[in-house]
Amino acid sequence: MSATMTSSTASSSGSVNRASVADQDWRKIGKWGGLCTLALVLVSLIGMPVGLDRRILIHPVLSLGYLSLLWIPLMLGFVVSKRVELEGVESPEPGGRDLVAGALTGLVGGVGMAVFMLALNTFNIRDPLVNWSPQLLELLNYGRGLGFGVAAWIVACCVLGLLGSAIHVVSADVRRVVSFSAFGLLAFAVLEGAISDLSEGFGLEFLTDSIYAKRGGVTIVWSIVLAVVIGGVSVLTKGRLKAAKANYSELEGPERKRASRILFVVVALLIVILPLFLGTIMNELLANVGLFLLLALGLNIVVGLAGILDLGYVAFFAVGGYTTAVLTSPDSPFFAPELHFGITLVIVVVFAGIVGLVIGAPVIRMRGDYLAIVTLGFGEIIRLLFMSDWLKPYFGGAQGITNVPGVDLGFITIKGTDPRSVFYLVLVFCALAIYISWRLQASRLGRAWMAIREDEKVAEAMGINTVNTKLLAFVVGAVLASFSGAILVAKVGSVFPNSFMILVSIIILVVVIVGGMGNIAGVLVGSFVLIGILGGPRQPGLLHEFQSFKLLIYGALLVFMMLQRPEGLVPSARRSQELHQEEFLQDVWFKGEEHEAEEHEAEEHEAASHEGSDA
Amino acid sequence: MSVADDAAMGQAPGGDRVALLEFRNVNTHYGAVHILKDVNLAIYPGELVCLLGGNASGKTTTLKALLGMVTPTSGDVVLHGEVVNNKPISYRVENGVTMVPENRRLFKRLSVKENLVLGAYLRSDKDGIEADLQHVFELFPRVEERLSQKAGTLSGGEQQMVAIGRALMSRPTVLLMDEPSMGLAPALVQQNFDLIQQINEEGMAVFMVEQNANMALSIADRGWVLQTGMVVLDDSAKSLLANPEMRAAYLGET
Q1: Contact A448 B118 (CB under 8 A)
Q2: Strands B82-83 and B97-100
């Protein structure tokens, strides 16, 4: 590989015509091919292929284990032939050159994989690397001997790289159909559990029974049918969604209001009715998503609106949980008034508010990193206090408090054994939290929070009492988290200090960041994608096979998001503008450079912006 | 804005003018470092005054003490005849003191409108706020066009307009301006000073801290020169411009 790296030739970006096939950017291919190898080996060695092999996606040819490897050359083939669109520089048409680049990248990865397999066959370093196992080799060989395996991987990676780059070469329509089919089929395969569950609720088992093989996975025949159907649907719906969206945004005044209202009612009805058709597992999952959504909405106020990077957010979750447990459980060791959940909730709010003030008051005067570290500490302190022998007589130490009753509503008792009822309870609180967040965002207080996030000193000069305003954000966040804790404890029926590890704080923060900070829709999407699909710190998601790799995926996702899409999955217009503003300003600066020659004193971005005003 | 009120408030019964904002023998310290030393200043209604001085002469500290971000260790800050040493910033803002910070420092990710409304944070009279918004639009028609744009995407000149507009939204009687020419192109500096003059002509007292002495003195009524925390010159702008010492130190003449 080092040979390809060093033999890099001059880039051909200047040529306008279709570049010749042999004229490749070798350095780029070497880089991405090397990355491909690294990724393949890494994924193999962390045990994904073996661990996930039992989850079959397409019966009998594709398991999740193989998919965990195969997407890598495909993805990197796509990346290597992707072009940066530069305004004013005419880039050559995508063509044969890109296909070759993709195939070569895959080839480098495939060769790397082959070398890895040979090493796997020859050496035994299983001692430090637990996954360096004959099973892995067997799996990579497809059980047909080393020679076959090596050849298969080289060819497969090469072809996948080619396919990845082909995505750029084909027309947009083809791209659309193919990607719809592929992702649709993947969704069908991955969401098997959810789809079966849903079809059972609607009495359509016969359909899913024929789609999915007995041991799991879509059958080959149905894969083809589904791919064709989804592709067909994508052709039929082409442009419709966009048109509908454009129509909607064109509406004005009362019509817009009416459309919004109808949309709202439809979505609300769907959310309320759907769980009735879902089984226990899916409802459990939705309830977990709701609990984390509640937490994420709270943290979104603290981090997204007020800009306070609170890493000890789990403390309030714990306070809500423990308060509920102590006040409702008959087994509470010291003080067991066995109150009703409703009354408890009021006390929970008060307690969470007080703890928010107590923790907030000393830390709120700090900024940025310092505040983050101190809150991180407080988060752990709260957990350790609940765990300590000192407070054991009150909170049960590591054994926690058990036998917490469900929520008695008179006609029904909401308990973990009936996750549907828990979901509805969570739904009520989420709706409330969303409403509060939404109203706060547009309020005077919300503006003050954003002003503090933007520039605390200036906010102070506007007459905003920054300390009190920030404390208020802290307290509102704390109260929302405590609700989530209270419901969790009523759901699970017990509370243990180890449910409130630092990890919970981190995961909620990742949910907020990945979804889109300071943005309610983003937080919603983030919770569904991360908690619903990957799972929470202890709660399994749809892909429960990923349980042991969850944190790795969270981390990788976070890195990827920070690099590629820092505004989150659902960016608020505001944030996206800010993050891409630098590029924008640089553009203006370049264009205005010659007119601004005298302005050497002004800062670069200042210089950039004037040009706009003078023009 | 409320010119008549200001005049009435500032006009003491004997014809003697009463200062809007005043420093009486103010001293400030950062830790053990003595920054301002027995500074006396007075800003009268409708005046345009400037504070000149080199780096580290205490200009910004003066501003901070006027607004309440720094509390004097001795001496008094007097607002409308009342000692306000220990009053919070919000009290001074409510009573007519507002600052336009150095480098404008808008809330970049918020819209222009949100920036302006935040200027009126301490006010709750919706109609009054709306009227003042209109007043800002009259002063700066450009700002109205950019109302829903994020403030960070505006040009430097526009940002300056929003920064001044934001300050006006609190209905100040005295505007404190920290280095209004800082980081602006020469053409824009001129435009900026024209703006300041225009606002001043409407009756607002303006107190500006400047490094660009020539420019500042050309529009100001009076000025002070601060050196290592002490007021070394206190005179009308005309005499300061003519003062040889001044010319040597700040106007680059020998």
Answers
A1: yes
A2: unpaired
Residue-wise pLDDT for A304-345, tens only, equals: 999 999 999 999 999 999 999 999 999 888 888 989 999 999
CA distance A608 to A585: 6
A464 interface with B at CB cutoff 8 Å: yes
Measured between CB atoms, which of B101, B110, B183 is closest to A450?
Answer: B110
pLDDT in tens, A529-551: 899 888 888 888 888 888 888 88
Contact A498, A395 (CB under 8 A): no
Q: How far apart are CA B183 and CA A604, in angstroms?
A: 10
Closest in B108, B122, B183 to A606, CB measured: B183
Entry field: residues in chain B = 254
Question: Which of B99, B153, B156 has its CB closest to that of A577?
Answer: B153
pLDDT above 70 for A575: no
Residue B44: closest CA among B76, B83, B11:
B11
DSSP string, A302-338: IIIIT----S-THHHHHHHHHHHHHHH-TT-SS----
pLDDT band at A10 (very low <50, low <70, confident <90, very high): very low
pLDDT digits (tens, 9 = 90+) for A486-529: 999 999 999 999 999 999 999 999 999 998 888 899 999 999 98
CB contact under 8 A, A462 and B121: yes
Nearest to A461 among B101, B152, B187 (CB): B101
Q: Is the pLDDT of residue B98 over 90?
A: yes
HSE-up (13 A, CA, CB side) for residue A119: 11
Query: Which residues does chain B have within 8 Å of residue A612's beta carbon, measured at their own beta carbons?
Result: 154-155, 158
What's the gap in Å between the CA of B219 and the closest CA on chain A?
23
* Residue A512, min C-alpha distance to chain B (Å): 18
CATH code for the domain in which residue B23 is found: 3.40.50.300
A405: three-class secondary structure by DSSP:
coil
Q: Nearest chain B Cα to A602, which residue?
A: B183
Contact status, residue A521 vs residue A537, Cβ threshold 8 Å: no
Q: Does residue B237 lie in a domain region?
A: yes
Tell me if A50 sits within 8 A of A139, measured CB to CB: yes
Q: Among residues 159-198 of chain A, which lie with CB inside 8 Å of chain B?
A: none
Please state the rounded mean pLDDT for residues B97-114. 90
d(CA B229, CA A136): 75
- Distance of alpha carbon B66 from alpha carbon B16, whole angstroms: 23
Who among B90, B108, B114 is closest to A447 (CB)? B114
A591 touches chain B (CB under 8 A): no
B33 burial level (CB within 10 Å; 0-12, 13-18, 19+) = exposed
The alpha-carbon gap from B70 to the nearest alpha carbon of chain A, in Å, equals 12
With CA atoms as reference, the chain A residue closest to B95 would be A463
Calculate the alpha carbon distances from A588 to A592, A608, B155 in Å.
6, 6, 10
Is B6 in the A-facing interface, judged by CB distances under 8 Å? no
Question: How does residue A448 score in pLDDT terms, banded at 50, 70 and 90?
Answer: very high
Is B41 within the bounds of a domain?
Answer: yes
**B238 in contact with A at a CB cutoff of 8 Å?**
no
**Pairing of β B48-53 and β A413-414:** unpaired
Q: Which two tokens stand for residue A130?
A: 């637990």
Are β-strands B48-53 and B222-227 bridged in parallel, bridged antiparallel, or unpaired? Answer: parallel
The pLDDT of residue A70 is above 70 = yes
Shortest distance between the Cα of A446 and any Cα of chain B, in A, equals: 11
A453: nearest CA partner in chain B = B107
- Measured CA to CA, the distance from residue A561 to residue A568 in angstroms comes to 7
- Print the domain residue range for B232: 1-96+207-254
Give the Cα separation of B214 and B181 in Å (integer). 12
Interface ipTM: 0.88
Q: Which residues contact B4 (CB under 8 A, 6 or more apart)?
A: none
Q: Please tell me the total count of domains within chain B.
A: 1
